[in-house]
# Entry
Amino acid sequence: MLLRPVRRSPLPARAVTVVVAAAVAFVAVGYSTDAPVARATSRVVSGAQPAVKHVFVVNLENKGFNQTFRTSRAPYLSQRLTGKGMLLTHYYGIAHHSLPNYLAQISGQAPNPSTQADCQRFSAFKATGTVAPQQAKGRGCVYPKSVNTVATQLTRHGLSWRGYMQDMGTGCRHPALGARDTTQRAHKGDQYAARHNPFVYFKVITSKASCATHDVSLKHLSTDLSKVSTTRNLSYITPNLCNDGHDSPCVDGRKGGLTSANVWLKSWIPKILASPAFKRNGLLVVTFDEAETGDSRACCGEGAAPNTANPGITGKGGGRIGAVLVSPYISPGTKNKTTDYNHYSLLRTIEDIFGLPALGYAKRAQAFGSDVWR
# Structure
């Protein structure tokens, strides 16, 4: 077995870190290219996160690592942006199809058959109990008030958040409970997809009038970025079905795919990077929800979930997707080729940054550590 050396960057003085080498074997199900079989990884446990105060998360759609970071169809993403931060070459989705990946990022909940099918009908989650780690057992789409999210954690701790959803129009927009989700397909002038807006799947958020002021249209982002005081601690940003690379071609006649995603990134990411909040103490994360459905690889010990034996339908995960991290606390132009991360890791990192208890499978996930922060 070939062991890769673990790359480390200098730690901030406030961080205490333990590094343990681990060799982990993975089996690729239904996908063979670059399968991480018997790949050596590093286990990095950080005693403290850097003083990040503003986190920006941008999700694109349905592209594996080889399509995005090993090609030039999205040069702003694969070249310009990676030059400004760190590329995580072994970052994974946790499921197929789209929705459970978004839900995992904010709640730590694993998929069930309804969310794996992208909740064609906006059905209530029918709970039959709770199992570790904080998993609602059952089936359905809209989780009861007892299921927590990082958004509600932030609010309870006096911190701020906003979801910015392109083309959503009315704040906190979602189908009526039990109704068919008409946003599954894009329409001219309205390419919003509810399944890419995880906040509307939790009653703990949607049952309150404040949902409409927290979960808003993307058009509010520019104004919010103008001042530190108006920039939320967590900004969760979702382009529409054309600009996130999902549709190709798009209903409005554009090419779509990575071409349109690249144009969108070139327009919006510089606004985030130029904002006073980001420059002072920000972290930008740009990733994808899942790889193509043929790649159901997993990492980080992900296995059968309480509500489905195969979160990735044909395997245990959502495939290798990669992620770019940009921050004043991260060395630019670097690559992390040694440590496996996934969407639960992202949630755990956000919670650790803000001093919040870990939710769901984030309890078992590894936050970004000394291999990321400088």
